[in-house]
Amino acid sequence: MSDEQRSTTPDAAAPPVRVEREGVVAIVTIDRPKALNALAPEVLGALAEAFEELAQAGDAVRGVLVVGAGGRAFVAGADIRALAPLTPEEGAATGRLGHRVAALIESLSAPVIACVDGFALGGGLELALACDFIYATDASWFGQPEVRLGLIPGFGGTVRLPRAVGLALAKELIYTGRRIDAATAEAAGLVARRFPDRESMLAGARATVEEIAANAWTAVGIAKRVLVAASGTPTATAVELEVAGFEDAFRTDDMREGVAAFLEKREPGFRGH
């Protein structure tokens, strides 16, 4: 949620979320540029539908890029006009919808890269945090300004931001509502890679997906499952999750092929099972 987004009702004639496919890459675009891509309930619902459909694609999609349309914002926050009349119970339901979108992103086997160009504030930062990692342009800004509206992060910010940047910095950002630029976000570990402009960022994200796609698809999926499940758990629990994932990898044909290819000094022919 943010003080930056504009309160504009989604255009019924145009879908607020578009999904395009480029080979093994899927691009999910939040397309409300006049509202700085604010997350109205309709947008959250459309995002949930998009990721449910991507989950059905299996290994035909090896990576997903999440982008915002318009060039000014990834997502500048939740839609304040939509939030203003809500009862406490309706507010909780909206929060649960935001968490559902995040859960769908985290449960997707394919890695998801948030490609941020412009504002990623409030719900926009929370959406980016649900992705596997964040790429950003130098023109990007990050923050959780909900307290300036009498709110707190409602889509996962109090959970995922401390895991990304540490508890102290997360508290500082959430309590103050302060924004940080892309360079600061990269130094803090929030942003994985920084680019001079949108074009180079998207090219870099596609190249990363291609690099991932060359690996054993089963192993990538297992690794993501373990990383998501183990995050924030006690070490003993996390270790057991990793051992279970390691065991599952031994059950795959890809593991046998990868090891055989290494020993035979040839390129592996992974088949995704």
TrEMBL record:
The lineage of its organism: Bacteria, Bacillati, Actinomycetota, Actinomycetes, Micrococcales. InterPro entries: ClpP/crotonase-like_dom_sf, Enoyl-CoA_hyd/isom_CS, Enoyl-CoA_hydra/iso, Enoyl-CoA_hydra_C. The keyword DNA repair does not apply. It is an enzyme of class 4 (lyase). This is enoyl-CoA hydratase. One of its GO terms (biological process) is fatty acid beta-oxidation. Belongs to the enoyl-CoA hydratase/isomerase family. Pfam families: ECH_1. It comes from Agromyces tardus. Gene3D superfamilies: 2-enoyl-CoA Hydratase, Chain A, domain 1 (3.90.226.10), Lyase 2-enoyl-coa Hydratase, Chain A, domain 2 (1.10.12.10). GO terms for molecular function: enoyl-CoA hydratase activity.
